[in-house]
Amino acid sequence: MIWTLRTLFIAVVCLAFTGVLAASIWTIADKPSPVNLPQLLSENLDRSGVEHPVTAVLLNFRSYDTLLEIGVLVIAGIAGISMAKTATLEDPELRTSDSLLYALQRWFVPLMLVLAGYLLWAGSDRPGGAFQAGAVLAATGVLMRLGGIPMEFLRPGRLLRLGLALGFTVFLLVAVASAIGGEAFLAYPPGITKTLIVIIESVLTLSIAMVLLALFVSAPVNDAEDSEEGSSS
Amino acid sequence: MTLWLMAGLLFTPLAWAVLTLLTDFARGRLVTWGGILVQVLVSLGLWLTVARDGGFYYGLGGWDAPLGIELRVDGLAVTFVLLTAVVASACGWHAGIYIDPDKPWHRYFWPLFWFLWSGLNAVWLGDDLFNLYVGLELISLSAVGLVALGGKASALRASLRYLLAALLGSLAYLLGVALMYGQFGTLSIAGIASWLTEHPVPAGSGLALALMIAGLALKTALFPLHQWLPPAHGIAKSPVSALLSALVVKASFYIAARLWLELGEPLGNLVSAQLVGLLGSAAVVWGSWLACRQLQLKQVVAYSSVAQIGYLFLLFPLTYSVSESVSLQAQQGITLQVISHALAKAAMFLAAGNLILSVGSSRVDALAGVSRFLPFSLFSFGLAGVSLMSLPPSGGFAAKWLLLQASLESGQWWWVLVLLVGGLLSAAYVFRIFRASFLESPESDQFYHPARSLEVIPMILALLALGLGLVSEQVLSVMALPFEVEGSP
Amino acid sequence: MTLNAWLPVFALMTSLVAALVIFALPEKGYRLRTAVNLGAALVKLGLVVVMVWGVFRGVDYGVSFTMVPGVAFALKADALSMMFATLSAVLWLLTTVYAVGYLEDSPNRSRFFGFFSLCVASTMGIALAGNLFTFFLFYEMLTLSTYPLVVHRGTEKALKAGRTYLIYTLTGGAVLLLAIAWLHGVEGDLPFREGGHFIDADADIHLSLILIFILLVAGLGVKAAVFPLHGWLPQAMVAPAPVSALLHAVAVVKAGAFGIVRVVYNIYGIEASSLLGVLEPLAWLAAFTMLYGSVRALSQVALKRLLAFSTVSQVSYIILGVCLFGPVGAAGGLVHLLHQGIMKITLFFCAGNYAETLGIHRIDDMDGAGRRMPGTSLAFTIGAFGMIGVPPLAGFITKWTLGSGALAANMDWVIAVLVLSSLLNAAYFLPIVHRLWFREPNGSWPRERRWGRLETNAWLFWPPLLTAVMTVVVGVLASLPFSPLSWAELIVLREYSP
Amino acid sequence: MTAPLLYALVGAMLCGIGLFGLLRLSHLLRKLLAFNIMGSGVFLVMVGLPQHQGGQDPVPQALVLTGIVVAIAATALAIVLIRRYYHLSGMTSLEGETTSREGGPE
Fold it and tell me: What are the tens digits of pLDDT across the range B51-66?
């Protein structure tokens, strides 16, 4: 009874919330916004060094957002591998002898790698970019892991941590280097903007894939040994 | 010069996060201590710059708002940057000694610590709604990671609860951002505020502000959305608890306050302002009451945070449709409350950690008789308590005084009762700890003196909190500096 | 800033620094700790003497800076503050001597003396505060630093008393803060000033002023133990004797009484208070407390509780004096601030000596103790006679001046209260004196004392005798310059003709 | 009504559904899914609302991309935590906790 009442109450609250939100959206949608950002953006697109406006926003106009966003991803990766305390990440249960999976792998892994490369390259003039490519790359890794292909670099060692940090580090270095060159922070030196953005995109792809993959394999399998201060003991 | 200071502030924490990620705990500690030095110097430098020349807007990447992300470097922001430098250095210093370097997973403490710091700096300086969201997430996720680091089931439960609350809060905030952008076409707070001063308030814009503030209130653990806080803050390692209570909850409050001060007058209304104040008052009473009933030392301190956070939300009613002078007093009072609570609560958590280390138990009644050993940490705990009880000459007292003045002058006398009753209730839980420590019991012979440096750190913080009241005029004067508006949209 | 500006700060710092040094000293550092204690007390006494001389000549000692926007932290030495400062400086020295002897070989001495010094620093701050805000600052600091002293023994009973003490004083502090904040809202930052600030107050703020006055008195009345806010005082008797001596004679109760004096004289001004009609009710309350405390004292069996109720009664003399409109009565009230301190500290020292040397806590165990401890008992007798008001002792001077003041202020009923109160004082003190000297001992202590040795530890023996002598001296020499009475008259003169 | 506005309104509905799930469901994975649904709703509002009148607007598109990455990071972290929590305690929800109930003795 109480359960139902509670559910009902929450349902009513959520419905009311949806209604108010929709009404608000309806009202807001009526009026044009006072600042015309798209126009401003297209006027400045030339200076950004990328043809595609979304990529320009991500990696130039609002590159600080993207830098922090990669930071968030790295944090998740760190927190993930901090949970995995085993020396080896070989999980016998995951090693399959399914012949179909093997066959699939043989076809899919190269295909997916190519796809990832294409997505990365396409990012400069069409929708696509580092994140999409990284996601596909990570999916490739997942497939390989499910198929039991050993991936030494996923041990929580220095190599993995280096991989996690790589994209972020390069991004950061570019930011600092631009300042040493006398520009403002995160301002790319004119002329090599395009090159820099491509480099950043490539290493970001690697790192994103690495983080996602690391999070997938960080299966916590052993017991915690640390005692807590605040818990009842 | 400014360029380098800004870079130091925004990017060195990120760089140090990467560096410490590549080392183990012991080496990470050395790297961190070096980084702390840099951060303190840079923060101080920026503070001095602003104290000398006044605040300014700083467009990142050479792009000004609304196209790029602009940072707002004003007196309040640099004050909090400096506060963060002080508190985070203390916690980092303490953690380096306190945390067991032999556990392999503790190597991840440092990168998370540095990411947390960079997120905090991003939030203090942020003036872009979406950038603030990313900063908040940076803070939340690293904080959750720190709480969960090497924890058992109860720590994981606490961190999951924390994570879900934080995520829901962020989403509510982000939804508000979406509506704001849909309405105003810009993400710059200053841009929206300046547009609103010249135009009539468009219909339907109140919800965006309400959503953002509600989401941020959840992240700040405003009553009745506070349940996630005590388990997370109570169970984390003491330096982490100190960081969380002192700084992390303040970040979301800071954004809420900024939004309210810039947009509250046009977009808010009296009822909601009073309602938020009422919830804050309820938090003061309820949090203190629960703090009195906790059996675990760190839970007492954690619930005390719930109560102390309640005071902060008195900002909302005390700045809505009141005279300039009252609003200023309220803002100054809340700023002092944020600073003094950050210092005092960090001191208290660190001292509590030392006490737990000393008596080997986390229960309050395990403290029976420890006063006989004259533990330095107990003294620090007490001095921090003076600030929490808002007794003179602490910063908490100066804050309370200003808030009292603001309440009386604006005729909202009901907040006066909250302020006075809250002070007494906090005395109740602080003195409960002391009562336990003064009890002379025969079996209290076990006492371990922690390393001196562990004990000195909370003492410094507590003394800062205590002395803040004496120099509050000077501290507040930096905030009142003229703000250069050139370059603002 | 000149040296003069810094003198009050130095006076404050002596005990503050002493406190910090003592906290840092190891528990075993007995000699060093005693040296620091006594040294600081002597230095402070010296500074106070210098300032007394200076204030007498009209030198202005003071320092002030803005602490919170709109309010200043101000230290200032005027005639009134010097009176309180002298009292605490002199009695701190004696109490320190006494406490060193009293706590010999007991645990937690480092903690005790540290907080003891903090307590004195707070008292000094209260004395030297230049406005209500600063006063409040030290007033609360006093609360905090006395708590560890009250619960010093760490027994359940002590902790319970400590809790009661805190509930009373912190609530009082909150009320006081409200009053001060409200007053600040009405009139802004008000420094203490002879003649007060509200002589020309607008009629439309009269109601606020009256309400604020009530709140102020309620907040201060807790520490001054005015009925019905006195409940903490008898309970706090579980503290060690030096603490009781200090709490009751000097620090806590006097801080409350001193605060009320400050409010009436230096914030509102005596004329404005009289105009607002707040003095008469306060006088009635004080008179009632005088009688109530004495009546309760009659039925006590424990010596220290009796003294506590006696304090409740005696402190209200000060408040009553303040409420008598006119210079003579005012002088009577002010002088009691000192007289009561000296007399009551004597009595508490003696009570401590009985407890420490002979194990006497109850009044019926005191039979014949005068033969075993004649020196202590002599001091006790002088103190008791002083309280009753036997000429020419200190208490007599108070009561006489108060009586004359009441007549001058046309409040004849006060005479009746004074007489009644004195009779009650006699009714509970004389039986004790009788027991001391004229009853056969029935206690279990050794009857005969060895000749050639003091009846108790020298550190315990001399302080009460010295204060007893002072009780006589301030009474006999009341008309000399720099006697408490002359000093009180100087204060009153400055108040009534600002 | 244009397509972007429809997206925004659907986003509002998704927000409501997600919120309901977050508040009502107790299984942690479901809670997480609910969070993702709500997140999608928010992203739809974010993309739909500004493009209703102004036409193509790359800024919200970029913001949503960033938002998605952040949401994925959070989801991944949550899953790791949930897995480990399940591994250690055998529980899939936060309820039924007896140790850290508010106010009660611990």
Answer: 888 888 888 877 887 8
Q: How many CB atoms lie within 10 A of CB C197?
A: 18
C203-212 contacts, C-beta under 8 A, 24 or more apart = C206/C276, C208/C182, C209/C268, C209/C276, C210/C276, C210/C277, C210/C278, C211/C182, C212/C179, C212/C182, C212/C183, C212/C186
Q: Within D25-57, where are the H helices? A: 28-54
Q: Are C382 and C468 in contact (CB under 8 A)?
A: yes
**Residue D18 token pair:** 């997600």
Closest chain A C-alpha to D94 CA, distance in angstroms: 16
Q: Would you give the DSSP letter of residue C129? A: B
- How is chain B split into domains, by residue range? 269-489
> What pLDDT band is residue A224 in, cutting at 50, 70 and 90?
very low
**Using CB atoms, which chains have 3+ pairs under 8 A with B?**
A, C, D
B193: Cβ contacts below 8 Å, ≥ 6 apart:
B262, B263
* Segments forming the whole domain that contains residue A89: 49-217
Q: Which residues in chain A have their CB less than 8 angstroms from residue D80's CB? A: 79-80, 83, 215, 218, 220
Query: Do B236 and A230 count as a contact with CB atoms less than 8 A apart?
Result: yes
Nearest to A130 by CA among A61, A187, A73: A73
pLDDT number for residue B160: 92
Is residue C303 within 8 A of residue C287, CB to CB? The reply is no
Percent of chain C with pLDDT over 70: 97
By the CB < 8 Å criterion, does A21 face chain D? Answer: yes
Which chain A residue's Cα is nearest to B195? A34
Residue D101 lies in a domain: no
For residue B483, list its beta bridge partners: B55
Whether residue D35 and residue B167 make contact (CB cut-off 8 A), yes or no, is yes
- What ipTM describes this predicted complex? 0.87
Cβ C405 vs Cβ C279: under 8 Å: no
Q: Which of B171, B207, B227 to mutate to test the interface with D (most CBs of D within 10 A)?
A: B171
A82 touches chain D (CB under 8 A): no
CA–CA dist D81, A128 (Å, integer):
30
User: Which residues does A24 contact at the CB level (< 8 Å), separation at least 6?
Assistant: B179, B204, B207, B208
- Please tell me the predicted confidence (pLDDT) of residue C242: 82
Q: Which residues pair with C61 in a beta bridge?
A: C77
Q: What is the pLDDT of residue C445?
A: 64
| Residue C315 and residue C445 in contact, taking contact as beta carbons nearer than 8 Å | no
Task: Tell me which residue range forms the domain holding D63.
Answer: 3-89
- In-domain check, residue A38: no
Q: Which chains touch C (3 or more CB pairs under 8 A)?
A: B
pLDDT digits (tens, 9 = 90+) for A199-223: 888 888 888 888 888 887 765 554 4
User: Is A43 near chain D, with CB under 8 Å?
Assistant: no
Domain count, chain D: 1
CB atoms B431 and C166 under 8 Å: yes
Residue A227 lies in a domain: no
B15 Cβ contact partners less than 8 Å away, ≥ 6 residues apart:
A172, A176
Measured CA to CA, the distance from residue B476 to residue B401 in angstroms comes to 14
What's this model's pTM, rounded to 2 decimal places? 0.90
C239 touches chain B (CB under 8 A): no
User: Among residues C338, C379, C104, which one has the least CA distance to residue C240?
Assistant: C104
DSSP B372: G
Domain count, chain A: 1
The shortest CB-CB distance from A14 to any of D20, D61, D74 is to D20
Q: Can you read off the two tokens belonging to residue D62?
A: 């970029």
Partners of A175 in beta bridges: none
More confident residue, C364 or A127: C364
Asked whether D106 and D99 are in contact (CB, 8 A), the reply is yes
Q: CATH number for the domain including D84? A: 1.10.287
